Each structure stands twice: as C-alpha cells, then as structure tokens.
Amino acid sequence: MESLYNNRTELIAPTESSLSAVLILKELVCDDVGVYRCWVDYFSKNRNYELTSLSTVALKATKPSNFGVFPYELQENQTLTLSCSAYVGAPNGNIKIWKIARNSTTNVLIFTANTSDFKTENCSEFINATFTYTVSRDDNGAMFLCSSQNVLNEDEGPSLESQIRVSVKYGPGKPSIVLTPNKSSYYVGEDIRLQCVSDSNPPYNITWSFLPFNHSTESSVFSYEIELKLKDIQLENAGNYTCTAVNEISTNNNTAVINVKEPLENNKRTIFSCDQCGFSEICEKKNGEEYCVTSPWMFVAIIFIFLCALFFVAIYFLRRVHRKSILHKSSTKKTSPRPESLPLDSPHHPSESAGLLSESGIPILGPTPDDTEAGYSTPKDVREMHEQSAMLPPPDERAEITTTCNQENTQYAEVQKKQQTENVYDPDWNENELVNLAPEPNILNLI
C-alpha cells in the first residue's frame, strides 16, 4: 500500500495556526477511488482523545448517451424493449429505468442495472443495459426515462427521456351500464336512461340489443348510441338490455335487467312481508309481490266519527240557543205592564174570587191554600159553594142538611171532572198574579 502512494502524497500536520490535518494525493489512478478515514489522537486536560472522519473519493456519473424504446405501438400483454447506456462514474455506479404514467408526474422505478468490472481509461464505469417490459392497458400513453448514478447521487442522477409516448392497444373492458333513475323495477309510464361505458384503445363502438322476458332466443338490435333513452315504458318493454362494445382488438358486453310493473294505487305500498302492514292496512299479493293497502273501512270509520262529533256539537249549541230564548221570554214577561182593569163578569176579576185575598192582599184567582178539597175548581165554583152554604137550614133539620151536603159533594165532584179551561195562565198578567194551584180545605168542612 505504501508503494501505491510513494512520492504521490503530501501530509500537512496541524500547526498552531491551523488544527486541520491535510492529505494531498497527486497523480490520481483508478485505485485511488474509495473511502478515506482520518484518525486524530490528542491530549487535553490530562486525557487522551480519538476522533475519526470519513471522506470519499468518487467520479461523477454522466447523462446517458443513448436510450431506446421499441416498439412504440403494441397490444396489451406484449413486450416492450428498453435499452440504455451511460458512464455511471465510480464507485458503485448503476443505471435505472423509470416509467411516467399518463396524466402523472411521478416516476416509478421498473429496472436497475448495476456496474461490472469494466472500467474506462479515466476510471469511470460504463454500463449498457437492455430491459424487456410487458405492457398493460394502464401503460397506454406512458413515457420512459433512463438515469445514471453512483454513491454521489444514489436516488436519481442525470437522465434521458423517451421522445414518444407508448401506445398500447387493447379491447373494450366489460361495459358498465348506468341506469337513471337506478331502481330494481319501474312502473308503466316512467322514463329510463341507460348509458354504456367502457374503455379501449382504439375507441369502441356500441350496439344495444333487447330480449323481452317472453322470448328466450331472439334479441333485436335497435341502437348504436352510447346512451339509450326509453320513454313512457310499458309492460312489453320489460326484459334484458345488452350493451356490446366492439373495437378492432376484441368485443365485450354487459346486460341490464329492466322490470316493468303496473303503477301502485295511492293507498298501496310495496313491502317484503305482510307483517309490515299497519292496523289500518290489509295485505294483498299481485304479480308475486306483496302490497299494504289502506282498508276502505278505515275511511268509513273516520267519516262516522266525524259526523257523530258534528251531531253532538250541533245538539249542544241548539240547547244553548233554546235556553237563552226561554230566559229572554221570561225576562220579557216580568217587565210587561199590568192591565188597568178587567170586565166585571170576567172570571179573573177580583170580585169573582169571592173576596179571597193572599197574605199580601193580592186577589187569588183560584182556590186558597186552605181549600184542600177545592182541587182545580174555578173561583166561580168556590163562590157558588159559599152561597149555598150560607142558605143551610138550622141545626134541627139534620136530614135535609145531610141531603144538601151530599148534593154539594156531588156537585163538587162534577166540577172536578170538568176540563179546566178557565183557570189558565194568562201571559199578559203579572207574574205575581199567577194562580196558586195548591189544594185548599173543603169549604163544607169548615162550616
């Protein structure tokens, strides 16, 4: 090792003005490339110290001189050949190949070629690498890049990009059918939009075909547009709608099932089980589906309850109006004026009451409270009874008195059977003049 550096090195020791130790290599050769360590042993404060550091002697990598991609056009799953050559410097030089996807700025490493034992006259390592890469449809539109680096730039050194993007041809993928609105079934009269979406290079063509549910073999082709519109669908529009995507590479298809059924009535709703029906609903089955239908008796019950409530409210207000009317009439009667006079022959004239007065001095138009046998007799009857009792014979004529009393009782009984038409409440009379209908004691018993 000493012979390698004889007469080519110069060591500058630390001095008072500079504490750095410097090693100078002269007339460099390839073997001078490597890592150097500096070791310092010094004494301070009665102690020995050691200090080491590393230093690398390297040659820079240069930009690749050649980078080829072949072919630029190929089909999916075919092989792409990439070749790159560059002076990668020293030590530990290598070549890396990167892929930049379409619509992306991120480099993805796909290949690395390490150095060999071949060194040039200036000690720089040279690499010529070839790499094969199987493409996929995701590589369509991608670019590739080759870079050279060593220990000085381990991640990515000087690079060279391909000038043309790769075109990868592939057939349509399985089409995706988008339904608008997206439902499991549709009702008669609805509109549906079906859109068929796929991906291919070159672009694909679309064919729509229809197979009704009541046919098992034949399907009819009726559209070549990406979007299919069905307006005012009917029951016969139910079936399988197949979208077929075609290009020069391959063909692919997908099928959407359209179920069409009659519209539900306003009082129906679709369910999975009859257990979901409420207390006011009944379960019906139609076309293999179950529906909850509002019971018609529920409307009858609601109307009946409403009419009953309306009837009771009307009765209540009519009774209140009637009661107010009666109270109004009663107050009107109490304020009506008393007649100035009555005819003398009127049965209601005070003279006809045989001089009977109440405790307050008001003439009584009927029997007095003491006349318990008068019943419903008129004042005129009471007066006749007084007159006849005044003409009774002396006490020694008992037989005739008995006969007279019997006659009077008979006459009184007949009076009780008469229709009481005279002792009627007169609305024009003051309330204080009402006839007192309480029974009075029999006048004969008082004699």
Automatic annotation (TrEMBL):
Pfam families, A to Z: Ig_3
SUPFAM superfamilies attached to this UniProt entry: Immunoglobulin
Residues that span the membrane, as ranges: 297-318
Keywords for this protein: Membrane, Transmembrane, Transmembrane helix
InterPro entries the UniProt entry points to: Ig-like_dom, Ig-like_dom_sf, Ig-like_fold, Ig_sub, Ig_sub2
Domain Ig-like: 175-259
Gene3D superfamilies on file: Immunoglobulins
SMART domains: IG, IGc2
Region of interest (Disordered), ranges: 328-378
Keyword Membrane: yes
Name of the protein described by the UniProt record: Sialic acid-binding Ig-like lectin 12 isoform X2
